[in-house]
């Protein structure tokens, strides 16, 4: 006898043998960068006809069973899965439960369906609520705005970790900075180069809001996706609301801002620039004496798939004192020791 049909809102903790009909909105890899990028799981967002959004997870041990079946935007029959309470940290959906695939899970693509399942779903927050979420680790909301500037270490051919910083103007004429690093920055550039023109509207999913030195930064995560202009329904609506319906106006200039020339600064001048300058990628020469350093381990959950070590250097010159934060491989460029190795050294000294 066929399994009975269920909707996601009716799921309860335990193993579910009923069948849910869902659309796969997005999926991504959750990796442990502390173990050289070891795959932990495949994460996904699923939605049903009632617009209930649930995060699903395929453990690394089962990923070969399911990876070849995953096509974003397709509809699936899902049964034989485990239902657990969702994590209260770094949430990508508002529901209380999440879905975990197991060895008995059935996830079969269906070509046609009579059910009206949404093709997109985004979790936008007003600027004030994003500010409230900063540094709390509670939610990974989505943002959409008019593109004002692009700063990139890739186009500027700067050495070290790759970074892209977008300045977006949100509703209410508020400008925010969205930062993307390494593989995410490279993926953005690949999409940007293939788009054929500079977009006007950019939508970024699953950002992690942080306040650094009094400024709000929206950091990309492993769950982040970027959409340009009319690639989404909400993006099309925003694009059409632009002056001239989004059409190019005469005299428009590029939004790409290249790195400035390298300038020597004192610690005091650098502190003042960080506190008062606009967010941007820029290089300075600053000569100072290292007085101490602290090495910490940053534990972040599977939703963002980051386990990182950071080192905080305290440096000084005759004008003042400043702290510099470096992560993982960046530390090796300064000390020839990875941050994770430095942490073990510090632990060993404490134990001794």
TrEMBL record:
Q: What is this protein called?
A: Replication protein A 70 kDa DNA-binding subunit B/D first OB fold domain-containing protein
Q: Check the record and name the SUPFAM superfamilies matching this protein.
A: Nucleic acid-binding proteins
Source species of the chain: Brassica carinata
Q: Output the CDD domains linked to this UniProt entry.
A: RPA1_DBD_A_like
- From what superkingdom does this record's organism come? Eukaryota
**Chain ranges of the Replication protein A 70 kDa DNA-binding subunit B/D first OB fold domain:** 5-108
> Which Pfam families does the UniProt record give?
DUF223 (PF02721)
Q: Which InterPro entries match?
A: NA-bd_OB-fold, RFA1B/D_OB_1st
